[in-house]
Design a protein that fits this description.
664 residues; 27 helices; alpha/beta; extended
Length: 664
C-alpha cells in the first residue's frame, strides 16, 4: 500500500482534484496496518512529507494513539510532548520519535483495562480463571431460587417482589420471570427428587434404623407430627434424616398416633429395619407405642421380641426431676434474675458504673450485696440465706446440667454416652440422701421419688450400649450397679443375660463364619491325637494333647467373650466409638453388626423438637394458611439438602463460644 501511495503522488497531474481521494487513501492505510515501531516511523515520515506538499490547513493527527494522548504546550526545553489522558504519563510527541512508546503504554496502562468483566471471573466449576464469559442457564437459575426459598424460609411470593425482580433484571436483562406457582412447583419437584435419594440410602443401610417422634401445634393450633430417623451408614457415620413433618388431624389419641406412624413407615418401606422408637412421656405415647409394637411384632419385624422398641426421652425425664428440686428456690432465683435485669436494663451509666466498681473488688454475690448498700433503688437483692441455698443447689445440679448437654445433641451423641451420665445423676441423688446437709437431703428426697419412677423402667439396651464402648465394657456397668444396688444385685445378672441373648440373635442371623469351625478343627485334631495315643501307648502324646487343648481353648469363646476379655482402652484419649467398630468389623463381624444397631439409638427427642423451630418460621402468622404438603416439602427438603451444614455451623459456633469464653 505504501508503494501505491508513492506512485499516486508521482502520477497525479491534477493535485487539487485528487486531494480528497489522497486523504481517504491515507486514512485507509493508517487503519489497516498493525503498526510496529518501524511502521510508526514510516507513517510519521509519510505524513510529514504529505503536509510539506500542502500549504493549506493545520497538521492532522491520524494515529489512534491520539485518542489516548493529548499534545502538551511547549515547555522550557522547546520539545513537543504528549500526556496520557488517564494515567498522566508523558512521552516525546515529535514525528521523529514515532508513536511506538505511546502504543506500548496503552497496552499496560493501569487505568485503561478494556477486558470484559465476565472474562475476569473465576470459574465455579474448575476453581480457576475462566477466559470465557458466564452464560445464563434458566434451569440453574430456578434451582438457585428454589434453594434460597428453602434455606432461608422465604415465602413463595418472594420471586414476585419488585425489588428481587429488579435485581434479576439488572444482572441479566433476559432473565426468566418466575411466579409463586413456579417456585412452589420447583420446591415440590426437589422434594420428590431428594425423597428418592433418601429411599435409596435406606436400601444401602445394612443395619437397623431407630426413630424419634413428637407432636407440635402451629400458631393456628394445627397439629403436626415430626418423624426422624437415626442410623449409621456404610461408612460408620451417624446420620439423622427427617422423614416426615405431616399434618395430624384430631383426635391425637394413642391409637390414631400409632396408625399414622405405621402408615408413614410403610410409605418409606423401612418397617423391616426398625430397632427402637424414642418418645416423650405423654400418656398417649405409651398407648401408641404399645399398639405399634404389637402390630410390628405380629409380623416378626422387631429384634428381641420388641423388648427394646420403646425408649423414653431422657431430656424430658431430667427436666421433670430437676424442676422438683428448683421449686424450693424459686423465690431466690427470681431475685437473682431481677438483680441482673436491674443492672443490665439500666440506661443510666451511673448505676452500671456502681456495679462495676463493686465487681472490681468483690465476687458477684458480694457485688450485689455491696450494690444494695450503695444504691437505694436496688430492692431485689437476695438474702444471705438465699444465696447459700442457691450456691448449694447450683453445685448439686451441675451433674444434671452436664448430662442434659450430652443428651441434647442431634447427631454427635451415640447411645454409649447415656449410661455413664445417668449413673452419675443417680449416684449424686443417692449421696445427697445419705449426706448430712438437711437442705440438700430435702431437695434430693423430692427429686428421688420421680427419678426412681423412671429408673425402674430404665431400658437395659442403653446399658448394653455402654458395654459396647471399649473404654467401659462390663466392668463399668457392674461398678455402677454395685454402688446403686449393692453386691450381687439382680440387675447385673439381668443386663448380662440380655446382652448374651441379643448377641445370640445376631449370631444366628449372621452369614459370617463363626468360631464353630475353629472348634471343630480343634476337636478333629484332638481326636486324631487320641487315636495316635491308642496306637503308640505313649504318655508323650497325652501330654501333647493337653498342650493342644490349651492352645485351642480360646476358639470355643464367642466374639462377645473375646471382646470383653480384652483390656479396656483409656478414657483420657480422644476416642470415637464408631471409628473403633469400623476398624474391628472384620474381627468381630457379628458383634459389630449388633453395635451398628445399638449405638444409633437416640436417647432423646431433641432431633424432632429442633425441627419445630423451623416449622415456626415456615408457618408464621403471615403464612399460617400454607398447605400441609407444602410445609412438609420445605422442611424436609431443607433438612435433606442443608442439614449437615446446619450441624457444622452449630459445631463451629460451640467451638467459637469456647474460645471466646476463655478470652472473656
Amino acid at each position: 500500500m505504501r508503494r501505491r501511495f508513492l506512485n499516486f503522488l508521482c502520477d497525479s497531474s491534477n493535485y487539487k482534484i485528487k486531494i480528497q481521494a489522497l486523504v481517504a487513501l491515507v486514512k485507509e492505510y493508517v487503519e489497516s496496518v498493525a503498526l510496529s515501531d518501524d511502521d510508526d516511523n514510516i507513517i510519521a515520515e509519510d505524513v510529514r512529507q504529505l503536509n510539506s506538499t500542502t500549504t493549506k490547513g493545520k497538521k492532522t493527527l491520524k494515529s489512534k494513539v491520539w485518542n489516548f494522548f493529548d499534545i502538551l504546550p511547549l515547555g522550557v526545553d522547546q520539545k513537543l510532548k504528549s500526556q496520557c489522558k488517564k494515567y498522566g504519563a508523558q512521552y516525546m510527541a515529535s514525528s521523529k520519535y514515532g508513536t511506538g512508546n505511546m502504543r506500548r503504554h496503552i497496552k499496560v496502562c493501569k487505568r485503561n483495562d478494556t477486558r470484559d468483566i465476565g472474562q475476569m471471573m473465576i470459574s465455579r466449576d474448575t476453581n480457576c480463571l475462566s477466559l470465557g464469559s458466564i452464560q445464563y442457564d434458566s434451569n440453574k437459575f430456578r434451582e438457585l431460587v428454589m434453594a434460597c426459598i428453602v434455606m432461608h424460609d422465604l415465602p413463595f411470593q418472594f420471586v414476585e417482589w419488585a425489588g428481587i425482580r429488579a435485581i434479576h433484571q439488572y444482572l441479566y436483562s433476559d432473565v426468566d420471570t418466575l411466579t409463586r406457582n413456579t417456585a412452589k412447583a420447583d420446591v415440590l419437584k426437589a422434594y420428590q427428587r431428594e425423597k428418592l435419594k433418601i429411599k435409596a440410602m435406606f436400601e444401602e443401610v445394612s443395619g437397623r434404623v431407630s426413630l424419634t417422634s413428637d407432636m407440635w401445634s402451629s400458631c393456628i393450633s394445627d397439629g403436626y407430627m415430626c418423624l426422624t430417623a437415626h442410623f449409621i451408614d456404610k461408612e460408620w457415620r451417624l446420620q439423622k434424616r427427617i422423614l416426615n413433618f405431616c399434618f395430624m388431624p384430631p383426635p391425637h389419641t394413642g391409637v390414631a398416633l400409632s396408625e399414622k406412624i405405621f402408615d408413614l413407615l410403610f410409605g418409606w418401606k423401612i418397617e423391616r429395619k426398625l430397632f427402637s422408637l424414642t418418645l416423650d412421656n405423654a400418656s398417649s405415647n405409651d398407648v401408641s407405642v404399645e399398639a405399634l409394637g404389637s402390630q410390628l411384632q405380629l409380623k416378626g419385624l422387631l429384634p428381641y421380641n420388641g423388648e427394646f422398641f420403646h425408649l423414653r426421652c431422657c431430656c424430658h425425664i431430667l427436666n421433670l426431676v430437676v424442676q422438683d428440686g428448683l421449686k424450693h428456690i424459686d423465690r431466690a432465683i427470681e431475685k437473682i434474675r431481677e438483680s441482673v435485669k436491674y443492672v443490665k436494663g439500666s440506661r443510666s451509666q451511673v448505676r452500671k458504673q456502681k456495679f462495676l466498681d463493686c465487681v472490681n473488688a468483690l465476687l458477684y454475690r458480694r457485688a450485689f450485696e455491696h450494690l444494695a448498700l450503695s444504691d437505694s433503688n436496688y430492692k431485689s437483692c437476695p438474702s444471705a440465706e438465699e444465696w447459700d441455698k442457691v450456691e448449694k443447689v447450683w453445685r448439686f445440679l451441675q451433674v444434671f446440667y452436664d448430662a442434659t448437654l450430652v443428651f441434647s445433641g442431634t447427631k454427635y451423641p451415640t447411645a454409649n454416652f447415656f449410661f455413664p451420665s445417668i449413673s452419675q445423676c443417680y449416684l449424686t441423688l443417692k449421696m445427697a440422701l445419705e449426706g448430712t446437709d438437711e437442705y440438700l437431703r430435702f431437695i434430693a428426697s423430692m427429686m428421688w421419688v420421680k427419678f426412681q419412677k423412671y429408673w425402674a423402667n430404665f431400658s437395659v439396651i442403653l446399658a448394653i450400649a455402654c458395654i459396647l464402648d471399649p473404654r467401659y465394657k462390663m466392668t463399668f456397668v457392674e461398678l455402677c450397679y454395685k454402688k446403686a444396688h449393692g453386691e450381687d444385685s439382680l440387675e447385673i445378672l439381668l443386663v448380662r443375660n440380655k446382652l448374651y441373648s441379643l448377641f445370640d440373635e445376631y449370631k444366628s442371623k449372621s452369614s459370617h463364619p463363626t468360631t464353630t469351625s475353629i472348634s471343630s478343627r480343634a476337636n478333629e485334631a484332638t481326636s486324631h491325637l487320641e487315636s495316635m495315643e491308642v496306637e503308640s501307648k505313649l504318655d508323650l502324646f497325652k501330654e501333647f494333647d493337653d498342650i493342644t487343648s490349651e492352645e485351642f481353648s480360646y476358639a470355643h469363646k464367642s466374639q462377645l467373650e473375646l471382646y470383653l476379655d480384652e483390656p479396656k482402652m483409656s478414657r483420657n484419649v480422644n476416642f470415637d466409638v464408631l471409628t473403633f467398630w469400623k476398624s474391628h468389623q472384620y474381627r468381630y463381624p457379628e458383634l459389630a453388626a449388633m453395635a451398628h444397631d445399638v449405638l444409633s439409638i437416640p436417647v432423646s427427642t431433641v432431633a424432632s423438637e429442633a425441627t419445630f423451630s423451623v416449622g415456626g418460621r415456615v408457618l408464621d402468622q403471615y403464612r399460617s394458611s400454607l398447605k400441609p404438603e407444602n410445609v412438609e416439602a420445605i422442611i424436609c427438603t431443607r433438612d435433606w439438602l442443608y442439614g449437615n451444614k446446619d450441624d457444622n455451623e452449630y459445631e463451629n459456633t460451640r467451638e467459637l463460644m469456647k474460645i471466646t469464653q476463655d478470652i472473656m
